[in-house]
Amino acid sequence: MENQIELFTTSDTKTSAYLLTCDIPLVKIVKENPHKIVFGFHQNEDVKRLLQQYWTNQAKVNPRKLFDSLDYLKDLIHRDYDI
Known about the structure:
The chain is of the alpha+beta class and 83 residues long. It contains three helices and three strands, in the order βαββαα. The protein is globular.
């Protein structure tokens, strides 16, 4: 039996940029239509902890790295690139 890896998926670009900034690798991007992109990350305890910090306004990241991550995601969205 194959071992299935659970993914955390979101269409929220800002949440995805935050996870990338925290060194969580992006493993999947699905362009469902021109107006909806879904980003996928391996689900694990680090992701759960980081999301909790994000949603409770306790996250602390380097702003320059966050903006670089956001630019990277925008490039993925607007170019015909697949992960």
